[in-house]
C-alpha cells in the first residue's frame, strides 16, 4: 500500500519524506481523505523519530509508506539548514489531532488504541469535550499479548472508524499500523505517541510560554529526566550532526511536489 500522491511539496530529512504543509492545508488534506475514504497512514517526524529511523532501516522503510508531518523545532532547524526555510507550521500531534477533530462538522467515529486503559478512557472523555460531534471509542489499551492481537484487529474492522489513534510509542505504533491496518479496518490510522497521556492529564504539558519558545522538549526532560535524558541530551546533538552530514553530502532529496 502506497500513500496517495500529496499535492504539496515535501522535504527529505535524513531520508524521510516530510510533507511541507501549513496547518490549514494539512487539516484540509486529511479531511478530504476522510470524506473520500482514502486509506492513509499518518505519522509525525521529530528529532527522536528521525534518529530511530537512522538506526532501524525497517522503521525507515515503513515511514516512507506514511504521510509524515513535521513535528518540533529539530526538524525546523533541519529544514533551515537543508532548504533555507523552516516548515510552514509545527504540526505536532498533541495539538494537531484535536484541531483536526474540531475542524470536522461531519460526525466521525474515532477509535483509540494504546496507553494505559485509564488514560485512554480519560483521553476519550476529553476528546468528547473538545469535539462533541464525534463518536469516541476506546478499542484497547496498549498492553496486549500476541494472542489478543487478532481480536483487536477484528474489533477495529467491525467498528471501521474514520480515524484510529494509535498510541504505543516509536517505532512500535508505526510498525503495528503497517503490519495490521488496511483499508477495510479504518480510513486514517494515525501514530500519536503520548497524545492519550497528554489528553488524560497524566502527563503534563509545558506552560504556554515554553511552547511558544519551542521548548516543550526541555520541559519533558525536566519532568522525566530518567526516561528522556538519552533522547534529548544525546539524541538532539546526534540528530543535528546527522543533518549537517546530509547537508555536506548534498541537498538530501530536494523540495518537491
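^ Assign residues to that structure.
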Amino acid at each position: 500500500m502506497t500513500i496517495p500522491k500529496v499535492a504539496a511539496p515535501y522535504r527529505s530529512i535524513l531520508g524521510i519524506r516530510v510533507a511541507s504543509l501549513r496547518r490549514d492545508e494539512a487539516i484540509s488534506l486529511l479531511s478530504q481523505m476522510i470524506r473520500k475514504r482514502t486509506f492513509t497512514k499518518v505519522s509525525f517526524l521529530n528529532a527522536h523519530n528521525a534518529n530511530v529511523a537512522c538506526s532501524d532501516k525497517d522503521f525507515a522503510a515503513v515511514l516512507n509508506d506514511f504521510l509524515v508531518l513535521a513535528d518540533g523545532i529539530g526538524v525546523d532547524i533541519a529544514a533551515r539548514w537543508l532548504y533555507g526555510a523552516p516548515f510552514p507550521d509545527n504540526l505536532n500531534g498533541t495539538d494537531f489531532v484535536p484541531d483536526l477533530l474540531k475542524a470536522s462538522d461531519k460526525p466521525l467515529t474515532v477509535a483509540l488504541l494504546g496507553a494505559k486503559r485509564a488514560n485512554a478512557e480519560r483521553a476519550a472523555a476529553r476528546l468528547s469535550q473538545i469535539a462533541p460531534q464525534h463518536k469516541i471509542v476506546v478499542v484497547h489499551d496498549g498492553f496486549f499479548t500476541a494472542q489478543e492481537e487478532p481480536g483487536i484487529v477484528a474489533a477495529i474492522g467491525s467498528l471501521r472508524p474514520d480515524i484510529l489513534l494509535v498510541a504505543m510509542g516509536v517505532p512500535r505504533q508505526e510498525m503495528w499500523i503497517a503490519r495490521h491496518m488496511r483499508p477495510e479496518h479504518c480510513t486514517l490510522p494515525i501514530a500519536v505517541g503520548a497524545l492519550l497521556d497528554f489528553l488524560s492529564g497524566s502527563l503534563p504539558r509545558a506552560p504556554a510560554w515554553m511552547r511558544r519558545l519551542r521548548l516543550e522538549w526541555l520541559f519533558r526532560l525536566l519532568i522525566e529526566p530518567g526516561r528522556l535524558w538519552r533522547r534529548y541530551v544525546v539524541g538532539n546533538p546526534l540528530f543535528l550532526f546527522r543533518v549537517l552530514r546530509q547537508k555536506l553530502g548534498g541537498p538530501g532529496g530536494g523540495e518537491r511536489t
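The first strand starts at residue 10 and ends at 13.
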